[in-house]
Specification:
The complex is a heterodimer of chains A (126) and B (140). Chain A is mainly beta. Chain A has one domain (28-122). Chain A has one helix at 20-26; strands spanning 9-12, 16-19, 28-35, 41-46, 48-53, 58-63, 73-79, 86-89, 99-106, 116-122. In chain A, the strands form three sheets. A four-stranded antiparallel sheet of chain A has the order 4-3-10-7, with no helix packed on it. In chain A, strands 5-6-9-8 form a four-stranded antiparallel sheet, with no helix packed on it. In chain A, strands 1-2 form a two-stranded antiparallel sheet. Chain B has one helix and eleven strands, in the order E-E-E-H-E-E-E-E-E-E-E-E. In chain B, the strands form three sheets. Chain B has a four-stranded antiparallel sheet with strand order 5-4-11-8, with no helix packed on it. Chain B is mainly β and 140 residues long.
Chain lengths: 126, 140
């Protein structure tokens, strides 16, 4: 190990201070950007071991390190190029400590595969 | 209680890798990866950012159509964005406001900007007066 600093507060010379619980609790614990067209694939990610194509327009990501519970906060966004405006949806599946699901639908409700599906997770790691 | 007074945090082994211990103590995560790199609260009807971090501008492309631009470019366009919308009492003049959503605008993200659309319940563009966005990913 290169070294460990144990501290409760970080102070910047001009920007102010924050307690380090904001660093630990406030950091995104996972995020992913995936390509849902063809064979679904991760574009880039953090703390994400894999994604699963759960059917047309539905994906879930699996975290490398589990959350402490399934009561984390999740956000999502989708982008498609050729199928009109799209909306990120929850797809009526509860999150687990290791997975978070996102759906992609047209404004009319039809599921389809987007060029970009993005999710992010904030909460407590185990 | 201890305090670190510093303007920069840099990893010793790798400059871009500072490791943080998780809340439960069972895992660690990379600080840089977890930080929100930019966020803003603005709107779809003008170019004012009510509050923001590392955002340079919001461009009003038309009704319900805005582009949010960050100050520092990402390493690539594969970052993750979360967006939400809302309306204040002053923007509560239509019953169509109830089911509004933010959808994409058939425009790919770039390393510095993402374009979004606000739609009402009839899928028509609508100028939300509250639009929130956050960006997570790798900065250049």
């Amino acid at each position: 190990m290169a070294g460990t600093i144990v501290a409760d507060t970080l102070t910047h010379s001009t920007a102010g201070s924050l307690t380090t619980d904001y660093v630990v609790n406030g950091s995104a614990k996972a995020w992913v950007s995936l390509n849902g067209t063809g064979t679904a694939a991760i574009r880039d990610s953090h703390n994400t071991s894999s994604i699963t194509d759960a059917g047309t327009g539905v994906y879930y990501s699996t975290f490398s390190s589990a959350m402490n519970n399934a009561s984390f906060s999740g956000g999502s966004h989708v982008i498609g190029l050729s199928n009109g405006d799209l909306v990120a949806t929850g797809e009526a599946t509860a999150p687990t400590t290791t997975t978070f699901r996102v759906g992609c639908r047209t404004v009319g409700g039809t599921l389809l595969d987007p060029e970009y599906a993005m999710t992010n997770v904030h909460g407590d790691l185990a | 209680m201890s305090t670190i007074i510093a303007d920069n945090l840099t990893g010793k082994t790798a400059a871009g890798n500072v490791t943080v211990t998780s809340e439960g103590g069972a895992a660690t995560f990379q600080l840089q990866q977890g930080l929100v790199k930019a966020w803003a609260k603005g709107s779809f009807y003008d170019t004012t950012l009510d509050d923001s971090f590392s955002m340079s501008s919001v461009t009003d492309n038309g009704t319900g159509d805005s582009t949010f631009t960050v100050s520092n470019a990402f390493n690539n366009a594969n970052y993750a964005v979360a967006m939400t919308r809302g309306r204040s009492a002053s923007n509560y003049t239509t019953s169509k406001a109830g089911g509004m959503v933010i959808a994409d605008n058939q425009t790919l993200p770039t390393t510095t900007a993402i374009r979004a659309r606000g739609l009402d319940t009839d899928a028509a563009e609508f100028d939300f007066d509250i639009a929130c966005v956050s960006f997570m990913g790798d900065l250049a």
